Fold ABC-2 type transport system ATP-binding protein.
Amino acid sequence: MTQNQASPSTAPAVPALSIRDLRKTYDNKVEALKGVSLDVAEGDFFALLGPNGAGKSTLIGIVSSLVNLTSGSVQVHGIDLRRDRSAAMRMIGLVPQEINFNTFEQPLDILVNYAGFYGVSRDEAIVRAEEELKRAQLWDKARMMSRTLSGGMKRRLMIARAMMTRPRLLILDEPTAGVDIEIRRGMWQTLREINAAGTTIILTTHYLEEAEYLCRNLAIIDRGTIVAQGPMRQLLARLDVEGFVLDIDGELPAQLPDIEGTIVVARDDHTLDIEMPRAMDLNRVFGVLDQAGIRVRSMRTKSNRLEELFVRMVAAGDAAPDDPGPAQVPDNTRTGTSAGGQA
């Protein structure tokens, strides 16, 4: 390079999905999205989390062009959804919650016909279908009637179908709902392979351990607003408390001891739930329990970290008008109070 030559500049990477001030108000005046903005980087495995009615389905519906937005912008790999819908849609593969293929067709035909809708030649579609059915561990079911497949197989077939168009962005709406843990973990491996091959994935799920295991970044949406977003590890680092379940020898006393800075609740006569600061010495907790005649037989983590973060972020907002308020402790449940508040 000569002295007069300009050094090459690195253009900023275009996100796989870029949403700005996205709003959606339905005809019944329900404001489902209230100015949502987020970016999903190319190649990311991204979790979109939120309680029922938070706006997840509306957001996904808009991105996949099934729902019209009220205002704001959506870009898929730099293509504006409103200006060039067809080009944007060619970038996206969608796996909805509901099984929506013809169960009286064979898996091979379902995949080949789907690819044909997007202009893929039949010869190429057959090659792709074999590849995707093998990846989904369904090749031996290729010529069976789809209605004979198990629920987990149907879910895997939905993912295989979405991959037939070689999407750069794959959106999965509750892909493992209703399947057992063994099948779910097999699907996790498939999704990781798809992501490792370069496809950006956006996942919505109510299985929070699934999001923590698979995803690198996440956003939590509640009542149409993003309440937290960023790298998974960074957001989980916000947690300053830990929850444990303690199995007790014998029966618990009628009055639980006070342990400063903790919340102690009797789950039943032989089990304690305890929430404590991460920096607190467990030996001090065990010491207080021992003085009260409570012998700990075993201990396990109360919940995964993402679940705790999710609950705290959603609970931080004001209660919705139809929200019955915080759950009440049953009358027959004994609690211990602390300086930090009441259990």
Remarks:
- The CA atoms of residues 125 and 242 lie 50 Å apart.
- The chain has two domains: 17-236, 241-319+331-336.
